[in-house]
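Comment thread on ticket #2218

A.B. wrote:
> Attaching the input chain for the structure job we discussed in standup.
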Amino acid sequence: VTKVLITAASFGDFVLHMPEISHDILDRVPHWRSDYEWALIYLNSTRFLLDSVTKRMVDLVVQELNILPRKPKNLNPNSHEHEDIMA
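C.D. wrote:
> Ran it. Output below, let me know if you need it in another format.
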């Protein structure tokens, strides 16, 4: 349980800090994407084990990966998409 939680949360940080690279990797290796989506679902099912910061990160990751629709005010400051909006 702990390994799944830690690995999924760590990759979530990577997704949020390097979104374009993350999308590229997950698009090139589809089974990694499905495995990671499973891990995110698992994280959500064990939210009682997570602290508030990790819960927020998971919410942002599922939006970044378009697993759930993005909320209008949740823009990833590390994405080029955010730079285009702010320009």
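A.B. wrote:
> Thanks. Noting for the ticket: The chain is about 70% helix and 0% strand.
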